[in-house]
Amino acid sequence: MRAAMDVDARVARGERPPLAGVPIALKDNICVGPDLNVPGDAVGYGGFTTCASKMLEKFASPYTATAAQRLIHAGAVIIGKTNLDEFAMGSSTENSAFGPTRNPWDLSRVPGGSSGGSAAAVAAGIVPAALGSDTGGSIRQPAGLCGVVGVKPTYGRVSRYGLVAFASSLDQIGPLTHNVTDAALVLEAICGHDEHDATSADKHVPRWSQLAEMPIERLTLGVPRQARSDSNHPEVARVFEEAISTFTSLGARIVDVEMPLIDHGIAAYYIVAPAEASSNLARFDGLRYGRSDRAAPGDDLFDVYCRNRSQGFGPEVKRRVMLGTHVLSSGYYDAYYTTALKVRRRILAEFSAAFVDLGCHCVLMPASPSPAFGIGEKGGDPLAMYLEDVYTVGVNLAGLPGMTIPAGFANSPKLPVGIQLVAPAFDEETMLRAARMFERASPGATARPPLTA
Known about the structure:
By secondary structure, this protein is α/β, with parallel strands linked by helices. It has helices spanning 2-12, 66-73, 116-123, 140-146, 180-190, 208-211, 234-249, 265-280, 301-312, 315-327, 333-357, 382-386, 393-398, 428-441; strands at 23-27, 77-82, 129-133, 149-152, 173-177, 220-224, 253-257, 362-366, 402-410, 415-422.
């Protein structure tokens, strides 16, 4: 409320912040520290930044992430943090030390992950917009499962300063909203160069919210043959084909493209991402950063570290740290990590061939191979869980912008299904314009879940 009053005062002085008074939630791996304009307790305006982990359950950040600070500057009011898979490692938001998040469309089902809390908060109407982070689909996959819009900008578009790192060459902050225009407005606020992030791109930030209203003449979309996999849930396949028909009715030209490495993206991702996670999470030893119930001292420092990390990290984080440590170890580095980097370059080459050689404005794929699945349904099968990101991980490996938009519903039960658009690097404009074309032609796809008291 104090932050909202500060916005009121700015408006009274004649300022016109673009997001004045808009309530926004942040995924709880985005730091918010004490705010000079909002005096309060020692924890500060931002409360804790936990990453949904016991390892950080009492960590109060001393500073604010650039993306969050830019939202505050734009007049937004941050009303809370949202749940996630621990350290953003997961596809269901079940891997949280504080319990799972549930899908507003069906409380027995997952909202997707790892930004499931942000997607559920938007879908349920708690906030009109939220920020998530996307390392392998963690914005786009839950957006599809919850029936909202989710955008992963080009790597470097949004500063990662203040985002707790999972895999530094893949992580990117982006918005989840009810519609394309709102996503464009939030993007305008958070994008831009930041001297605190060496990977931040010094690129002009267009007025996407206005440009998105301009349809693309002679729109050309590339549809990978691999995106029509027999492994897709039948209802996902049906909605995807209906979406292609909708684009065709809008005058789009559909081009079949071959992208065989879509089928190998999961394997490459689960070498590159865990390798970087192994390095990034080494700093969390249980002796710093807010862990409250540290393990009792052992015989030596190694023993203390082992106990703290064993108690502080959940099973999925441990699995990925061990996998990453293994692929970086002597004798395995070239066989696994170096090979995965070669696949990464070839995935980018396949996307580039679609954009440059075939003249595609965007590549069109499903957001995920299935609608929302039941809580606990895939927890015992890590590979089945990983395959939920089969259509999203390649976009991160290539560093390209991608976004999910609601496309329709699976039947029996009624669950949202999303489609994904992928554009060339730093061409969010084309992606947003194509998405807005589809949104205008499919008003029923943006329905909201029925909520009961």
